[in-house]
Amino acid sequence: MTIKQGETEMKTGRVVMISGANRGIGAALSARLQADGWSVSAGVRNPDVLQLGAPHLVCPFDANRPESEQEWTEKTYAHYGRIDAVIANAGIMTQGSFLDVGDAALEHMFQINVLSPVRLVRAAWPHLVSSGAGRVVIVSSLSGKRVKSARSSAYAMTKHAVVALSHGIKRVGWADGVRSTVVCPGFVATDMARGITGRDENSMTQADDIAMLVSSVLDMPNTANIAELCISCQEEDLY
Question: Mapped to the 3 state alphabet, what secondary structure does 115-144 carry?
Fold first, then answer.
């Protein structure tokens, strides 16, 4: 069903923006939420390689370009007339300790992993508030809960930061019905994990499992917020 509002078509179904939706966890999230009835706005660097089909929307998005979040949000709202949820999934990893990773590489990680989610949530904020049940999901990592090794310490700094961001979003938005959840997975069978471990893919958490959990979180009522989802494929100390 579509309700005409001037030049804007407002779909009656919920609308979610997903960054990095072209592969890995982002692609699994997109597929799952489409199946659940959400209208998806996918933000990707190369929209030509991703075809979702109507009524879904693919928009150019570059987390390293500060104007990109606002432009993507405006296109999403112009297309759907509403935004109910934002999933900040795009992220990068540079391996190394805080001694080894230079300022430029560290700043680049903070730009992608921290500042871009901040800008995205800011841009979508009025629409999340208008929803009355706005939802934000920040995809962090178990590296946001502990520092597993020296070689992950620089990356962990950025992931700890977005854990704090998610809790901050919940504090700021609580009275307006905005709820935030930070997802902290360990090894997930994606390209990023394949580049840092030789672990068998069948022994890692699957992206579809992350998508199933996020889908459940998005459906929780305002009275039952799940602040953190820590997901591990192995026995380990998480804190």
Answer: HHHHHHHHHHHHHHHHHCCCEEEEECCHHH
Segment 143-202, tens digit of pLDDT: 899 888 888 899 999 999 999 999 999 999 999 999 999 999 987 776 665 666 666 677
How far apart are alpha carbons 116 and 110 in whole angstroms?
A: 8
The tens digit of pLDDT for each residue in 38-47 reads 999 999 988 8
Per the document, the length of the chain is 239
**153-173 and 103-110 helices, crossing angle to 10°:** 30
Among all residues, which ones are annotated catalytic?
A: 155
Which residues are bridge partners to 231 per DSSP?
Answer: 185
* Structure tokens belonging to residue 183: 């997802």
CA torsion angle 77 38 164 46 (round to 10): -70
CB 86 within 8 A of CB 128: yes
Measured CA to CA in angstroms, residue 125 lies from 31, 91, 154, 169, 181 at distances of 24, 21, 29, 10, 15
Cα-only R_g, the chain: 17
Task: Please report how many Cα atoms fall inside a 13 Å half-sphere around the Cα of residue 4, on the Cβ side.
Answer: 2
Decide if 13 contacts 39 (C-beta within 8 A): yes
- For residue 96, what is the DSSP state? S
d(CA 204, CA 202): 6
Two structure tokens written together for 177: 């019905």
Note the pTM of the prediction, 2 decimals.
0.89
- Which has the closest alpha carbon to 161: 88, 64, 232? 88
Residue position matching structure tokens 């921290």: 114
